[in-house]
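User: Before I run my own analysis I want an independent prediction to cross-check against. Here's the chain; please return only the structure tokens and, at the end, one sentence I can use as a sanity check.
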Amino acid sequence: MQYNKPKVLVSSCLLGCKVRYNASDVNVENKCFEKLAQKYELVAFCPEVSAGLPTPRPSAEIQGGEGLDVLLGLAKVIEIDGVDVSEAFICGAQMALEICIEENISLAILNESSPSCGSSSIYDGSFSGVKKNRHGCNSRFVKAKRNRSAFPT
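Assistant: Structure tokens:
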């Protein structure tokens, strides 16, 4: 009988995929994920690339709130050149949730400070490197839906 490992959603950039805005990855010691992969099936996902944003792309930050506010239409994700990419971030968050539901994923390891994946901090929207304690779009959407919170779609 074959044992199916539980699955964990992981930001692709944490697994060495060069999908960040500047076509880089996040330097994480491979041993961490090698140990995790012994117990879990790691499902790599980048909401921004999955939603059609190119790599590289201009950096983007949430202006006027946090991820939940973007999802509710109260804030925007704006690239450093002024382009509004909110719809792509919302689409990427929806796609992440679909994968979590389809694959029965209840745990995620996400890249901190990203306007998509930040789970406890994001940049403040001024493109000055200042962070604030808030959630990104993907992190907030998946968390709300997986917890069956009241949230409009």
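Sanity check: The longest strand covers residues 7-11.
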